[in-house]
Amino acid sequence: MESRASEVDVVAEHAAAIVSRLDGRLGEIVDSVQEILVGEFAEIGGNGELLDLLRDAVEGNLAAYLPAIRHRIPVEKIQPPTPALEHARRMAQRGVPANTLVRGYRLGHRALLDRLVAEIATANLDSELGLHVFQRLSAVSFAYIDSTMEEILDSHQQERDRWLTNKSRLRAVRVREALEAPDVDVDEMTTATGYPFARTHLALVVWLDGPAAGDELTRLERFAGLLCHAVAPAGRPLFVAADGLSGWVWFSVDDALVADVHMRVRSFVDAQPDAPRVVMSNPMRGLNGFRRAHRQALDVRATVLASSLPTPSFTAACDPGVQVAVRFREDLDGAREWVRSVLGDLAEDNEATERLRETLQLFLRSASSFKATADLQHLHVNSVKYRVQRAIERRGREVAEDRLDVEVALLLVRWFGGAVLA
User: Fold this and answer.
1) Alpha-carbon gap, residue 244 to 320, rounded angstroms
2) Where are the alpha helices (DSSP H) in 181-249?
3) Least enclosed by CB within 10 Å: which of 79, 310, 363, 370?
């Protein structure tokens, strides 16, 4: 009997040693699991909008499981991490089915087991001991998943029930139908929602940076109404909650307002001290325009969130450089390779090279005027000349032969920073 207890202790000690070896690489493991999940189920990451919350959920689950092994904590005494519960609620708000969450947890679990197997293999344990250690790690992980998923799914179900009882949810269902259904009766949809789908639309996404206080959707819907009244008084806003902190907005505009409507919206947003974040599409007409404008606004928002720039209060799809950044956002690895090929050593990620890039970008934007660039940077003209020449030397060739490529590459660096630098 004592021998059996001793064997259990030996296995537990080696299992604790295995997970302890993962401590220094926890961040790497979390990033890897997150990438796997989003690659398989984009909706788990909110199509880019909930990546930080997803990462915290993955990290929270690992931070709960690893100590359970290390200290022999019974899994029934472990509470699901708060970010994991909140992530489940956000998934319910977005209409992501519970089955997707379950599949995501299974996929993440498999990725963790693969890591544990690799660690056992490098620990040089004899085959029988290694098998027992894996059995323990696997048994505890399955028990943790079973215990946690019960509360995760309960949280998802409760939020789904609450969300469906909300009056605005009924409107959201019709709007999603307008966005996705292949055959839509425009007149019937207009009657059902009170929104004129046949006219010219602006689509916006509005959101608040946390933490949540409980009245976010009310604030966002009120803001949408005030914005529409100020910019297009004849229009009528259509507001749909995307989740607890963000909303989708459309309003129709007369043709006479189309040319400068983005400036009107920008002026209104800038004048509001407590305005939410806002991105806006270009004006587009009809039901197809309603859909395309919404997709464009979502793309702009995803690009803004992926950017290394401070998040602006307002971004329009027609702002200079925005559409270029949108096109490159989904392939930052490819963008990095291209930027390096265009900029050469000017694509290095350090402060000195950053100053050279900034000066060269302003120089090209200022019609190659040293004086105009010097005025913008509050530098002496000779300093600007030196920096421009140094930037060209770092690049390794003149700019005149492929100036457009250089300007686009510099724009991508400005938007995405280190993500596209060498």
Assistant:
1) 31
2) 186-193, 216-231
3) 310
For 253-320, where are the E strands, in sequence order? 277-280, 284-285, 314-316
Average model confidence (pLDDT) for the chain? 89
- Asked if residues 143 and 75 have their Cβ atoms less than 8 Å apart, the reply is yes
- pLDDT at res. 5: 52
How far apart are the C-alpha atoms of 412 and 286, rounded to whole Å? 33
CB 61 within 8 A of CB 81: yes
Strand, helix or coil for residue 238: strand
Identify the bridge partners of residue 246 per DSSP, sorted by sequence position: 207, 243
How high is the pLDDT of residue 337?
94
> In this structure, are strands 238-243 and 246-252 parallel, antiparallel, or unpaired?
antiparallel
Dihedral angle over CA of 49, 58, 115, 140, nearest 10: -150
Instruction: Name the stretches of the chain with pLDDT < 70.
Output: 1-5, 164-168, 212
Residue 182 CB: number of other CB atoms within 10 A? 4
Helix (H, G, I), strand (E, B) or coil at 331: coil
- Report the DSSP pairing between strands 200-207 and 277-280: antiparallel
Pairing of strands 277-280, 284-285: unpaired
pLDDT of residue 267: 95
Spatial CA neighbour of 116 closest among 90, 84, 140, 98: 140
Helices (H) and strands (E) in the chain, counts: 17, 6
How would you label 113-126 residue by residue, b for 16+ Cβ within 10 Å and e otherwise?
A: eebbeebbeeeebe
For residue 142, which amino acid is it? F
CA distance 236 to 229: 8
Cα distance between residue 392 and residue 376, in whole Å: 20
For β-strands 284-285 and 246-252, DSSP reports them as: unpaired
CA–CA–CA angle 230, 234, 235 (5° rounding): 80
Phi, psi for residue 350 in degrees, rounded to 5: -150, 165
Token pair, residue 45, equals 């990451």
